[in-house]
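Structure (tokenized):
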């Protein structure tokens, strides 16, 4: 068991790290300082950040969609899709902290639910699907 985490700790760690990133008021300046210090200050421009948001939301949905073909639970993907749409709309259309927070909670919930669904999937346990 050396070097191996206890079963079920990954979803908990993922949820708590996402929660810390959402509520930490130091995160935005810290990320800005980090990007500037490694020569990526240009990434703080609105157009770049908007593109990065779309890319990362797309990657999250692609991951949920990939898992969908294994466990066949459409509700997980729909929850993630709704969350991604709310994040985008809350950030770039109506600028609403509530919409962004609700969308982030939905996307995190879909991710945790997806991990649980994959752990309960017989095909995944056999090593055939993921």
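Design, position by position:
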């Amino acid at each position: 068991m050396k070097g191996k985490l206890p079963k079920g700790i990954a979803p908990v760690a993922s949820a708590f790290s996402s929660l810390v990133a959402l509520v930490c008021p130091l995160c935005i300046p810290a990320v800005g300082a980090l990007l500037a210090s490694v020569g990526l200050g240009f990434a703080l421009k609105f157009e770049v950040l908007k593109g990065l948001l779309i890319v990362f939301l797309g990657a999250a949905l692609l991951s949920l969609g990939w898992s969908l073909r294994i466990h066949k639970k459409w509700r997980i993907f729909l929850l993630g899709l709704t969350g991604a749409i709310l994040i985008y709309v809350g950030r770039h259309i109506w600028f609403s902290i509530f919409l962004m927070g609700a969308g982030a909670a939905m996307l995190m919930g879909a991710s945790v639910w997806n991990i649980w669904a994959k752990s309960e999937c017989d095909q995944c346990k056999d090593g055939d699907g993921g």
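Reviewer-requested clarification: The two ends are 22 Å apart (CA to CA). The chain is about 75% helix and 0% strand.
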